[in-house]
Amino acid sequence: PARPLARERRPAAPQSRVRRQAPRALRGPRRRGLVREGRPRLLRRGSAFRALAAGRGGNRAWGQRLMGCGGSKNDEVQETSGDSIAKPVQQTARALEVIDDAAPPDEACAPKAAEPPKEADAGPPQPDVPAEPEPETAPDEAQPQDAEEAMVMPLESIKEDPTSQGFLVKEQALALSGEKRFEEADPLWGKALQVIAEESGERSAVRLKAQIQHCEAHLWMADRKQEAIDGLKRAYDDAQGAFGDQDPKTVAICNYVSAYMQSAGLHEEAVVWRQRTLEGYHATLGSEHKKTMECADMLADLLMVLHRHEEAIVLYQWSHEGRESDPENFTAQEILASGQKMVAILSDQGMLGEAEELHRSLEKYISKVHGEYSREHARSRSTLGDLAHDVGRYGDAAEAHTEAAEMLEKLAGSEHLETLSAWGNVAYDLQAQAKYPEAEALYRRILPGLEASVGKGNAETLKCMDRFATLLRLTSRYTEARKLQKEAMEGLSALQQPGGHNTAVLHAMADLASIEQAVGNYEEAERLLTLALQQWEAKEGHSHPQTVTTLGALARLMRVRGKLHEAEDLHRRALDRSMNVLGPTHPNTLSVLNGLANVVRVLGRDAEAEELLRHALEGEERVFGPTHPHTLATVNNLACVLRSLKQFKEAAELQQRALDGKEKALGADHPSTLASVNNLASLKRALGQHDEAEPLQLRALEIQRKTLGPTHPNTLVSLHNMGSLLRLLGRHEEAEQFFREALEGRVSALGENHPNTIASLNHLASLMHWQGKTDEALVFYRRAVAGCTETFGPESKHTIALASSLATILSANGQLAEAVEMHRLVLRGREAALGPNHADTIMALGFLADALLALGRLEEAEQLQKEALERKEKVFGPTHPSTLVTVNNLTNVLRKNGKHAEAEHLYRRAVAGKEEMLGKDHPSTLASINNLATLLRTLGRHGEAAELQRLALLRKEAKLGQNHPDTLLTVNNLANALQAQGKLEEAEVLQRRALEGRELALGPSHADTLASLNNLASLLQTMGRHHDAEPLHRRALQGREETLGPKHASTLASCNNLANLLFARGKYEEAELLHRRALAGREAQLGPQHQNTLASLSNLGNVLRAIGKFSESEELQRRALEWKEASLGATHPDTLVSVNNLANLMEAMEDYAAAEELHRRALNAREASVGPTHPDTLASLNNLAEVLQRLERYDEAETLHRRALASKEESLGSSHPSTLASLNNLANLLQEMGKSGEAKELLRNTLESRLQALGPDHPDTLASRANLASILEEEGDLAGAEDLLREVIRGRQATLGNEHASTCACYGGLARVLKAAGRPEEAEQFQRRHFEGLTAVRGETHPDTLAAGANLANLLQALGRYEEAEPLLQSIREKMSTTLGELHTDTLACNANFAHLLQAKGQAAATGPP
Q: Are 254 and 295 in contact (CB under 8 A)?
């Protein structure tokens, strides 16, 4: 799914925001003297300050909330941050007690009352000795001073006696410490502190001042920081004991402790001490005092360092509102600086709407401070542009930045640094709107100006270069982009202080990594991102937002590289940090949620991805609004996940929402908009709405070619997707062109080993395979595997998947043994990398089972599928959709293995499980229903099969529409079920509907359309409409040859099907050629023992049997049987088909004993495996009865025929074609048994039923007429027999042709009737047609041809045409002796007839073999 581009850091116009400056107290101590407290320079607005003031009078809850230490606000922060604020909460509770119970400030801050000095004892004057000077008054003896002044420099005001011993020693110690002679200074400091304590007292102000100086000037400067902090803590305790908590000296020392702790990195403890300082200011100066607000700002700064942002923002807000509500004591400049700082903080925290609102409120202060038209106004417009850009209003941002740039041009000149930077912001806004040519023109104008103004190595110039490089990357000019990006990064690195960290360098490093990633140079991209991450962590810590962003970028790279588990781990680390530091709705957190969702989606955990994306979408709608590009990108991503979950309706709604929103926000030609167009087209394609998908896909492609260029990655994606759509539509040649163009572009732009190039190779290979261009497919697959191995490694998921595809194509190419071995390698690799129970490992197990099934090794395939099912049940549970898929796959193997009962049980389990887990209308559920119906049809339970297919059809029509490809597939399957039921007319209607729907939706040459052609042709063949069926079969064959190639499996299937039809029409020569072609192709593609190859062997054997090539036919049939027995087992249904075919051949060769044995074997096995009423069982009953009839074992034959008839009437109905066939066969037997009356009645009933069910010209109807004519002939009703036979001849000539074997048989029957009626001349004409037709169709040595020739010779003899009869009969005798043998009954009969012929000619001679 398309994601928004990462937010590029934009250099703001100089001083457009006040740079955040740490207070002096937080920057470490000076060499000498006390540290002066600094003041933050920036903050926010509202009514919080007035609420706090009210809190002093009794609204304690407001005071707690605004101090960030109590109430619900604090609870939220604690829930996010853990226990880190436990201490501050306790400390601020003390502060609140002070606020509630404090005395008025003047009284609280007054110094302790001074005691009068004691007088010395009087003594005699000593004029020669000068009096000692009185020591300066200690602070505790001083007169009261102004409280505020005492708070500013309370310790500097302490008076010391410069002549005292302690002062002198301390000054010496200070001098040595200043010269860094710390060892020499150490003893002096000890002596000074001791002397001062003796002179002034242990807790005097003078000694307190000396303690602080010792800590600051000596211990701290000697890098004995902990000792310095401990000393300050002792000084605080002394001051607290001597002067109290609220004394200015105590508060000042508390502030010292906080500053030094912060400098030492002890931030948590520093917060506690800063809060104590704030308590003191509250109690002594009041909440409105500047010092109180400045202390609150410093406490907020500390909280920001600790990422306790919500507490910090409340304090910033409080101090800013205080300044704004007191304009008498705070200047407009101070209020403006405070507000600008607050805008920056809110923006950094993703509170963009609040930031923009606050910034607009500051414009009046800008006018007051800087006048009505100034650079500050321009900078303000620039800041508004920044905020608009951040919320995705790129057009508003460009307008604001343009206004700022134009103002600066007038105020500072067009070549001024600020002006050029402002135009750089405009270029960046245009870039975000995908107005790349306009943006590029601006960059090319700005860069020379910056170089001329401040130099090529200036930070602003280099940042502009960085942005321009990003534009070049977005427009696929990677070489130019890389060169410019490297130049920018090197320049920024040169500006970096030794050992320091320049954040601009790290941003440039990440941008360069994006370029390297785009061109597939993943190792370098990973190196750059890892280095950037390490430096961010070292500079800002593990939880800094930019650290989290870099971690997310590295995770995305790992995902692209296929290192999905590493990517997930990195994303989860980033998410934990972002959640804890920034909160659940911060833009960084929402971005990481998106990245994690993409990873888990690729890992196949779509439900988890959906949950993550819904959380992200909820947050982005709240933070950015419903139409922000980031929000719409998440809408797009969620739609893609829902599509994978088959939730098409909601997916379509979201995809349309994304597209509409992007068109409005970004424009119709924006790359992100076109990405949504592309995704919507893909969704329409998945829904079968191809007429809507194609124009959308073309729209995206045409605009991308125009705006981005033919080799841009997005253009190449659309080319690829267009190829996929055309392939689905069956327009394979067009699809191939698009796939090849995408591949060429990707190889040129990205290289052979880029993931997108590999994807193109994969899809093109798949198309080549589908078209039957196996050799080309293998070439592309091998290239893809090589590239994937190079890029992702040999054990990568992508490499293994492509290796699996290569194994599949090897199977299709007949290289099954190699394919199986490759699948085994894939399985071993996944087991090693992922473990035996990983979803991908189990999938590899299934692929290996499929390969073994294709190889015909059913037992191994079954064992592996059972193992896969066992693993999935253990990992996912018995009702998981993936488990049910394996249940379905196992049932397919069981069905092919002839284990129908077990297969049915599992099919029903799959249907029930999917209905419960996925719903009754889910495509996977309907697929399982279809499979169950297919099995039931195989089991002969046609009624149940049809009902299931009708149910599936109704659900698909309701969910997908009548012309969806899946719906039409079910229409086809229902037609097959109805055909098996004998409901041929209804089946024809459905087959024609499927064909017309596929032609309309997919095109006439699509694979599914050609399959419908084949199915309709087969149905018409069953209906006896061979003339209608043949052109459809030929059209299907031609279409597959053109679309898929002459060697494709589907093409060979059409060869086989057309050959079967030609066989039925008696066109044995062409049928033989097609069957030989199919056999040769299948042997080459699938191997000699594949089931399809063996089917072609049997089919060719049947044709050879029909034309009397019994020896070759027997060889083929026995070969097929032997291999089926070896691979499938002796009782497999396919094996029994070969047993039946061999039995039929034995019957044709008049080896009735062998035929009986084989038919009994088939019958017994079928009764055991599929039951006594299965159609296959009943077919074996009929075949065995026919052999027994030939053996004149009529009673046994009659029993079997009647049993078959009764079973068919019960299961299929009395009018089913198969039932009528049994009725006809029983009548023939009864006729042969001499029960002509009963036979005649049965035949008349059969004829009437066939006329009604099949029509007058159906082959079965014509066969009934011929059989009835035979009875009439026996009864002497020659006229009736003649009429029936002439109708049969007319019908067979119309449906089968003049030379069909069945038509020729009717010629012989009519000749026989005409001869019996005393019309030998007419009889001779039809008998000659009979003989010549069979000679043409079956060959001159076929037994039927020889019999027809003998009958013709007898007719010629009866007509006295001995000269014609003798050579004909002589030729027949020779051929029978050679073909059938000298002792064959037909040979012996022919010899007798020849003797009679010679006798009739008066040439009595012994008859013997020629």
A: no
How far is it, in rounded angstroms, from Cα 1366 to Cα 1375? Answer: 14
Which ranges in 645-731 belong to alpha helices (H)?
648-665, 671-686, 690-707, 713-728
Closest of 269, 326, 244 to residue 292, by C-alpha: 326
Tens of pLDDT, residue by residue over 627-673, are: 888 888 899 899 988 888 888 888 888 989 988 988 887 788 877 88
Name the average pLDDT for the chain.
78
Which tokens in the block code for residue 398? 């460009």
What the block records as the tokens of 825 is 């390698």
Amino acid 620: pLDDT: 86
Kindly state the tokens that stand for 191: 């002596």
Which pLDDT tens digit goes with each residue over 309-322? 888 888 888 888 88
What is the three-class DSSP state of 870?
Answer: helix
**Cα separation of 836 and 1300, whole Å?**
61
φ, ψ dihedrals at 349, nearest 5°: -90, 5
Six-digit token string for 1074: 């097609």
pTM for the structure as a whole: 0.46
What is the C-alpha end-to-end distance of the chain, expressed in Å? 86
The radius of gyration of the chain from alpha carbons, rounded to an integer in Å, stands at 49
Least confident of 35-39, 328-332, 796-800, 1181-1185: 35-39
Closest CA to 692 of 715, 717, 659, 644: 659
Return the number of other C-beta atoms located less than 10 Å from residue 798's C-beta: 22
What is the percent of the chain where pLDDT is above 90? 10
Amino acid identity for residue 1006 in this structure: H
How buried is residue 130: exposed, middle or buried, by Cβ count under 10 Å (0-12/13-18/19+)?
Answer: exposed
The pair phi, psi for residue 656, each rounded to 5°, is -70, -40
* Angle value at C-alpha 748, between 669 and 707, nearest 5 degrees: 15
Q: How many helices (H) and strands (E) does the chain have?
A: 66, 0
DSSP 1295-1352: HT-TT-HHHHHHHHHHHHHHHHTT-HHHHHHHHHHHHHHHHHHH-TTSHHHHHHHHHH
Which ranges of 145-266 would DSSP assign to H, the alpha helix?
147-152, 165-178, 182-200, 205-213, 225-243, 248-263
Residue with the bigger pLDDT between 1087 and 1113: it is 1113
List b or e across 1346-1385, with b for residues whose CB sees 16 or more CB atoms inside 10 angstroms.
bbbbbbbbbbbbeeeebeebbebbbebbebbbebbeeeee
What distance in Å separates the CA atoms of residue 1029 and residue 1019, rounded to the nearest whole number?
8
